[in-house]
Design brief:
InterPro entries: Ig-like_fold. The chain is of the alpha/beta class and 327 residues long. Helices cover 22% and strands 28% of the residues.
């Protein structure tokens, strides 16, 4: 009879991916060894059968033959059962991955990653007399707060190069939030409702006007620029109105904020100057502007206009759309 080789046992439940791989390899090794053991036992049984047949063919001694059969019966009885335990794969199952529980180590790793994501946000202090103050810090642009009553947001110490993001959670969902020293655009924005609802707001300083602008950001984008924000206005047109002036009209893009228009007397715009920068959709150019304090339009002369969408801080802008108009 051959000796049964030693089988390696696993003493701990796998936790990490590497440990799971190692456990799988160990289970495979043990299964292979168990198969070898079973094969060895089967070989011994086969040898006993051969011995019994030899006795049957070579002797009339039924006593010896009976003893050989008894020995064979004992060997067959002592064959190890082929169970999960005997194959040492009792720790292996066919549970689908989606149904497998998360180990303590795996859960801890997931929570650590979640903490890293949440740590991007600086938690603002509680409202004081209904006011929450954001003290801008370029190194910590992400801030968040939870409000349980109508609240005013005040933004302090903001610089032209600072673009911040506010994550605002409403406890009841019906709290009214206003920006005390900033302009919310677009004005028609509808805030979320419902207990625990969340809104995101991006805020920045317009260096030209010195005003702080706040605009909503779609949920899940940190930070984001609306797809249409920096596209140029549509249908830019200019028509001479017969009084040494040009009537300019355009259609603002949804989500755009500020429009800039330039006028030049040369087709390459090498002598252009700004004649309009605001949020409207029309302008009557009479020649006078800050860039042309003594300017007038001359009948019969051709002027070149270009328009673009520009961000509050001037860091983002669309391409130009050019037209020409003869007065």
């Amino acid at each position: 009879m051959s000796e049964t080789p030693e089988v390696i046992q696993s003493t701990t439940s796998p936790q990490t991916l590497d440990e799971i791989k190692a456990a799988a390899m160990l289970a495979a090794t043990n299964a292979q060894q168990a198969a070898v053991n079973a094969a060895a036992a089967a070989s011994n049984a086969a040898q006993a059968i051969a011995d019994a047949m030899a006795l049957l063919n070579g002797t009339d001694n039924m006593t010896q033959f009976s003893e050989a059969l008894q020995d064979l019966s004992e060997q067959l009885t002592n064959l190890p059962p082929l169970t999960r335990e005997s194959l040492l794969i009792d720790k292996v199952d066919n549970t689908p991955d989606a149904a497998k529980p998360v180990s303590v180590a795996q859960q801890s790793a997931l929570e650590a990653k979640s903490d890293k994501i949440n740590s991007k946000y600086v938690v603002l202090g509680a409202a004081v007399n209904g006011v929450v103050t954001i003290a801008c810090n370029p190194e910590e642009p992400y801030v968040k707060c939870t409000v349980g009553a109508n609240t005013a947001i005040v933004i302090e110490d903001i610089t032209p190069d600072h673009r911040g993001l506010l994550k605002l959670k409403k406890t009841n969902g019906n709290e009214v939030v206003t920006f005390q020293n900033a302009l919310l655009a677009p004005v028609g924005f509808t805030a979320s409702t419902g207990a625990g609802s969340i809104d995101f707001y991006q805020f920045e300083l317009d260096e030209d006007s010195g005003r702080i602008f706040v605009f909503p950001v779609p949920f899940g984008a940190v930070p984001v620029v609306a797809p249409t924000k920096w596209l140029p206005p549509l249908n830019f047109k200019g028509v001479s109105n017969g009084t040494n002036a040009v009537a300019l009209t355009w259609e603002k893009r949804a989500g755009s904020y500020q429009v800039h228009i330039y006028r030049a007397t040369k087709p390459d715009f090498s002598d252009q100057g700004t004649i309009y920068q605001s949020n409207g959709s029309s302008y009557n150019d009479t020649g006078f502007s800050a860039a042309f304090p003594n300017g007038t339009l001359v009948d019969g002369k051709t002027y070149y206009y270009r328009i673009k969408t520009r961000s509050y801080n001037g860091l983002d802008e669309s391409v130009y759309v050019n037209i020409q108009v003869t007065v």
